[in-house]
Design a protein that fits this description.
Blueprint (H helix, E strand, L loop, with lengths): L5 E6 L8 H14 L3 E6 L36 E4 H6 L11 E4 L5 E4 L1 E4 L1 H9 L3 E4 L1
Parallel strand pairs: 1-2, 1-7, 2-3, 3-6
Antiparallel strand pairs: 4-5
Length: about 140
């Protein structure tokens, strides 16, 4: 068998109004269940997918935002949020869900999954991936 490939799921769309963000989340979870090295990037309106306190009651759409809290259980621990996208939408890291994982290599210490990076850093991270999937 070959080396495990790095898969990055790039999330560019708002969480509701289209199926793309839910599909991106589901595909990332499926990939991780099959031992892919999965990371996720949130850019443009995709940063809203991680916003705290999502309320879909008036839209008639199911709120799937709580599913993001399960990412650490699937070993999806690298969530890259583009700083410029946050700033352009008037958001800060404090507006995002407090997503964490338990680091097995550090006595199961709870650590943050979200890493805010600038566009240049994100470009470097993207360049290191083997497979990119855009949603």
């Amino acid at each position: 068998m070959g080396a495990i490939k790095k898969f990055m799921y790039i999330n560019r769309t708002a969480p509701y109004g289209s199926i793309y963000s839910l599909e991106g989340l589901e595909v990332a979870l499926i990939g991780a269940a099959f031992d892919q090295d999965v990371s996720m990037a949130f850019v443009d309106d995709g940063v809203f997918q991680l916003k705290k306190g999502q309320d879909t009651s008036k839209s008639g759409m199911k709120n799937f935002s709580l599913a993001y809290s399960a990412l650490g259980d699937y070993d999806i621990t690298k969530l890259y949020v583009e700083k410029e996208s946050l700033q352009a939408r008037g958001l800060t890291v404090e507006d995002l869900m407090p997503l964490t994982y338990e680091d097995q290599d550090d006595d199961y210490q709870e650590k943050p999954s979200i890493r805010v990076v600038d566009s240049e850093q994100l470009a470097d991270i993207i360049a290191e991936q083997d497979v990119l999937l855009n949603y």
